[in-house]
Design a protein that fits this description.
2 domains; 9 strands; 1 helix; about 30% strand; about 130 residues; binds copper (II) ion; alpha+beta; 4-stranded mixed sheet; Immunoglobulin-like
Amino acid sequence: MNTKTATLLAGAVVAILATAVLAIAGQQAAFAANVDITIVPGASTKTKDAFSPNPAEAHVGDTVVWTNKDGALHTAVSGKDNKPDGKFGVQSDGQTPILIPPGKTSEFKPTQAGEYDYFCSLHPAMSGELKVS
Ligand SMILES: [Cu+2]
């Protein structure tokens, strides 16, 4: 084997390894998905149909993203009956809702499986459920 052949072979091995590493990295990225929930137009006067899909399903490690497609301010606060339980949708004090202006988003990355109820603190009839497995 001359030097030129050896260099070409080494280059080919590096290219194959790089491709394998990229493929593995791509697969790992695919495991954590975005789960999109829409706050639908006219949500202020809706109930369980204010959020779509409802219930929504996610896995631990996913990023759940609420997008406000209505023209009014809304929130997506974990808890039930207008009582925040502090799991998501509130500021670090555990009570103050995070506002989602029209066209904006709010995110939650679940770290534990479970069924999470949530609601809009400005329109408590708006209620949803997030199932995390
Ligand atoms: Cu609302």
